[in-house]
Write a structure and sequence with these properties.
With 278 residues, this protein is mainly α. The protein has a domain of 167 residues: MetI-like (MetI-like fold, Orthogonal Bundle). Helices cover 74% and strands 0% of the residues. Helix 5 crosses helix 8 and helix 9 runs antiparallel to helix 10. It is flat. Belongs to the binding-protein-dependent transport system permease family. It is found in: Cell membrane. Pfam families: BPD_transp_1.
Length: 278
């Protein structure tokens, strides 16, 4: 019995050690970015490089603010990411509910067609989307990013799978017998059950929209409409590269993503472990 407890303790110690090392490796790039953001260019280029934070955090960030409209770009990114995420949560969960719990003609064919779109590189749709945005006169408008991002094939797939496995058909049938409309079954019964799935999809979509660079670069040409990723490009000078300033802007542009993840972390883990617990 004692030997069994000893072996169990050793295995747990080994497991936690591996997890601790993995956590440190995951955090290290963010820490290294912070270290570079707090040092001058001279210290960054020194060999061996600095491994502890310096004293140039404020000065580097001041250079960022003086070079680009940092706070305006952050606000644009926050508006785009928030509206798009909320729209995706509603529309994709509604579509996922329809595919999971409703019967209609061509359901399987339509669902397969949605899955096929996930295999198409988004770069192939760049020119057609640009033509449509131009005809709608949405260039240099945040609508050019928000509207195309409101529907997500992965979001529909994720919601359909989660609703199929976590919302019992008996509850849906009972609600229909009690006189609930289809939308009320979705809103009052399904939505409270799939909150963890909402958190997971929200993190994925918010991070994708926040980090998106190519499409905003194409359709947003005016400085006041730039998102943060496009604005950060303005920190790179062709002749003099101030790495401390660049990494300072990058670091502070990453902070909102960390906050969003920490806020939704518990629900995110819950959605991933739901099937294992069952």
């Amino acid at each position: 019995m004692n030997s069994h407890k000893k072996s169990l303790l050793i295995s747990k110690t080994f497991l936690y050690s591996i997890l601790a090392i993995a956590a440190l490796l995951s955090i290290f790039p963010f820490y290294w970015m912070f270290v570079m953001a707090t040092n001058t260019n001279e210290v960054i280029n020194r060999i061996p490089p600095a491994v502890f934070p310096g004293e140039a955090l404020v000065s580097n960030f001041t250079k960022v603010v003086n070079t680009i409209d940092f706070f305006g770009a952050m606000w644009n990114s926050f508006v785009v990411s928030s509206i798009t995420t909320i729209g995706v949560l509603f529309l994709c969960s509604l579509a996922g509910f329809a595919f999971a719990k409703l019967e209609f003609k061509g359901k399987n064919i339509l669902f397969v067609a949605i899955l096929v779109t996930m295999m198409i590189p988004p770069q192939l749709g760049l020119i057609p989307q640009y033509i449509i945005i131009t005809k709608l006169n949405w260039l240099n408008d945040l609508k050019a990013i928000i509207i195309p991002g409101l529907i997500d094939a992965f979001g529909i797939f994720w919601m359909r799978q989660y609703i199929s496995s976590n919302v019992p058909d008996e509850i849906v049938d009972a609600a229909k017998i009690d006189g609930c409309s289809i939308f009320r079954v979705y809103w009052n019964i399904t939505v409270p059950i799939i909150i963890p799935a909402f958190a997971t999809l929200a993190i994925i979509k918010f991070m994708y929209m926040w980090n998106d660079f190519l499409w905003p670069l194409v359709v947003l040409r005016e400085t006041e409409t730039h998102t943060i990723q496009v604005a950060l490009r303005g920190l790179i000078d062709n002749y003099v590269r101030d790495n401390g300033m660049i990494l300072s802007g990058t670091f502070w542009a990453t902070v909102p993503l960390v906050i969003i993840f920490l806020l939704l972390n518990r629900l995110f883990i819950s959605s991933l472990t739901e099937g294992a617990v069952k």
